[in-house]
Design goal:
The chain is of the alpha/beta class and 564 residues long. The chain has 22 helices and 17 strands.
Length: 564
């Protein structure tokens, strides 16, 4: 057992080691990187898979003056000759673009200037070096110049800033430079949303090409991001770039947690009994030939368990940023796409041609491109490749399944709000005691929208799906609808309390495992009576109480009602 703190949100390798946080050793990445001998390597991985921490680790390893004891007892020390040659031996330029979030090009450009300028300022002792020429010192001063608290380099200086900094540092230290650029594509994503993509892509292209193309001052460069942006868009003429994406074999165990990592972590904190739960919810990603877990999810869940050892898993990863891509897929779904989403929700796979290089402008040009991005960013994972080169894609785990369900419910609520007449028709049929009208109207919704197919998905998950569907429609037109509210001796699926008509409604939803929907309706009604779900409505003074048993099978439903 360990009492070490878990490094939630801590992306500084030095802080994790010095302050004795729990650390799963990924220093083997250094040995693989040096053995690979690529001059420029781009790692693309979904968010929250350890990219920034690994970049911090690389910086701590290579940087001149580093505390070499940081790596004591870690895997990289097994490679003594590499440590003798590289540990603490190189100047490092390390920048992260993950916080570039300007609403316009001027703001975003100012943020990039500040990021590069602050990194350059770390080396201001070079101004005292007599070996540097006046011109070289002038180039450096242009990078770090500040007026009224802001870095003021002009566009030409900005475009050449990283390149010039590496040249100056090589001359000063007499050693080539390690260049680390974390989350290089975040400014492009923000620019796409903000409407200034062309200007930002031109700026990032110029900065990267100047820094990476034929730069003899580089020992090696490493970039990370979520997407590999098309070479003709950003990496024009960059022939020394080696891309390691989620599809590529190699380096796969260094981003994310392997199964053995998770087993050890759970053992160290005394939660071995949670292994199957953690695997169901947070495993399932396939990078190259390796299966990995999302580390952000695992450490957050273990942290939650330390407070409450009966805690249920949560959607930790999906709550860290927006899920616009997934929502766009759902909102733009045609009949074919709806069918494919239903297959995924049923635990099946879909076969897609994946474009591993895109521009942000391409993403929403067609649904096929959105499928590619969902794969690259972790919403889907590859089960296999077909002989024709198509990717067989699946939902990786329970968390993403729940996220996709939630996206469908939210879309349904928005659509119901836009089509209030249909949603109101359904609501009124339920409150007014019209089971056939309820059945017909809800059936129309199921036919027109994404549903869930009858495969090997657990019955509980199927029932939750239809429950959420109905709840989404009803809650869009009435605030009198509550879900899983404690009532009587348990929890009713949905309860409605109409103050206007003093009518209370209890709905219990079942997924029919065969076509005998009547029997499942009867089972639902029996559960309502047995568990006394109507008691809260009685206590609230409802004059009329209606109880509905609802059975669903694929895109069909059956409704039965009884009065209290």
């Amino acid at each position: 057992m360990t009492n070490k703190a878990l490094p939630i949100g801590v992306e500084s390798f030095e802080k994790i080691i010095k302050e004795n946080y729990y650390y799963i050793d990924k220093t083997g990445l250094i040995a693989d990187l040096l053995a690979n001998r690529a001059e420029v390597t781009l790692f693309t991985r979904p968010r929250r898979f350890g990219k920034s921490l690994n970049m911090s680790m690389l910086k701590a390893f290579f940087e001149i003056g580093t505390d070499e004891s940081l790596f004591d007892n870690l895997k990289i020390t097994e490679y003594k000759s590499l440590c003798d040659e590289y540990l603490g031996k190189y100047p490092v330029v390390a920048i992260t673009l993950k916080d570039v979030s300007g609403a316009d090009i001027a703001t975003a450009k100012a943020q990039i200037k500040a990021i590069i300028g602050r990194e350059a300022l770390k080396y201001n002792e070079i101004l005292n070096d007599d070996n540097l020429t006046g011109e070289e010192k002038s180039l450096y001063k242009a990078i770090i110049e500040v007026t009224n608290g802001e870095f003021v380099m002009d566009d030409m200086v900005l475009r050449n800033s990283i390149m010039n900094l590496t040249h100056i540092l090589e001359k000063y230290y007499g050693r080539k430079v390690i260049l680390l650029i974390d989350e290089y594509d975040v400014p492009l994503d923000k620019a796409h949303v903000g409407g200034y993509y062309e200007e930002m892509s031109a700026l990032i292209r110029d900065i990267l090409c100047a820094a990476l193309k034929s730069n003899n001052s580089l020992k090696l460069a490493v970039l990370t991001g979520c997407l590999r942006i098309a070479k003709e868009s950003i990496f024009t003429g960059l022939n020394n770039l080696r891309v390691q994406s989620v599809s590529d074999v190699g380096f796969s165990e260094w981003f994310g947690f392997t199964d053995s990592d998770v087993v050890r972590l759970l053992e160290d904190y005394g939660f071995q009994d949670k292994y199957e739960v953690v695997k169901e919810w947070y495993d399932g990603y396939r990078f190259g030939k390796s299966n990995v877990y999302c580390p952000w999810d695992v450490i957050n869940y273990v942290q939650t368990l330390r407070t409450d050892n009966e805690a249920v898993p949560e959607l930790y990863w999906s709550n860290t940023s927006g899920n616009d891509l997934l929502n766009n897929l759902i909102a733009g779904a045609n009949d074919q796409t709806r069918h494919e989403i239903e297959m995924l929700l049923a635990g099946e796979s879909v076969k897609k041609s994946v474009r591993t290089e895109l521009t942000y402008r391409d993403i929403e040009d067609s649904l096929d491109n959105i499928w590619s991005v969902l794969y690259m960013t972790g919403y889907l994972t590859m089960m296999s490749r077909t002989t024709e080169g198509e990717y067989e894609l699946i939902i990786p785990n329970r968390e993403i399944y729940s996220l996709m369900k939630s996206g469908i419910y939210q879309h349904l609520k928005r659509e119901a709000a836009n089509k209030t007449a249909d949603a109101k028709k359904l609501f009124d049929a339920i409150v007014n005691g019209e089971p056939q009208k309820f059945e017909d109207t809800f059936s129309d919704y199921l036919i027109q929208h994404i549903s869930i197919r009858d495969t090997n998905v657990r019955k509980e998950m199927k029932e939750n799906f239809y429950h959420g569907y109905l709840l989404g429609i009803l809650s869009a037109v009435s605030g009198a609808v509550v879900s899983n509210r404690e009532s009587g001796d348990g929890y009713a699926d949905i309860i409605i309390k109409s103050a206007e008509t003093r009518t209370g409604v209890v709905l219990e939803i079942k997924y029919a495992e065969n076509e005998n929907l009547d029997a499942y309706c009867d089972e639902a009604l029996h559960q309502i009576s047995e568990k006394n779900y109507e008691q809260s409505l009685i206590d609230d003074g409802m004059d009329v109480i209606r109880k509905y048993g609802v059975a669903c099978y694929k895109k069909r439903c059956k409704v039965k009602m009884c009065h209290f």
